[in-house]
Amino acid sequence: MILDISETRTDLWKGAAKFKDIFSISTGYPQLDKCLPGGGWPLGVLTEILVENTEEPPVWLITPALASLEREKRWQVWIGPNGIPYAPALAKTGIDLSKTLVIHPPTRKDLLWTIEQTLESNICSAVLSWPHKIYGVTSRRLQLAAKNSRSLNLCFCSSNYAQNQTMATLRLLFYPNRQGAKITILKCHGSKPIKTLQLIRND
Question: pTM of the full predicted structure?
Fold first, then answer.
């Protein structure tokens, strides 16, 4: 049986106008939501978050959405993170650790294969991955794998590759600061990129 989650979720909605087939979920940060078509993280597409240091990903930026997606009771998978996520901190945000899976593929080829297979399985509400860089054919494959998954698909990549041309629907350049972070929207289907957005952390 195929469940249409758009009929069961109250915090999930379609994007506007010609992007009506893109579903989104709130980021948990109203200031960022206002800049994104559909009012949040797009689902079923490739989203790329570019950071200066992939060993220190902005987990605080994504935990509100992950906690909200717990209502679906599906798996949330972390593929190739640098280290092991701090379980007590994740649990405190409302994330169900019993439905959280961390995978450390031994090679880059294995990592990309794991991302594709996980997305195509359609059993995950969120797929987070650390490929370091994506471009060309790689980004196209990940975009296609995400297309029918209805998953939150976030790839953390190095900001050194911000100039790469990718198939990602959304690309954010993230620079942390004392208040939270400065975010530049490099690419966003449905709206014009903006220069800089100062985001304040919730915690």
Answer: 0.85
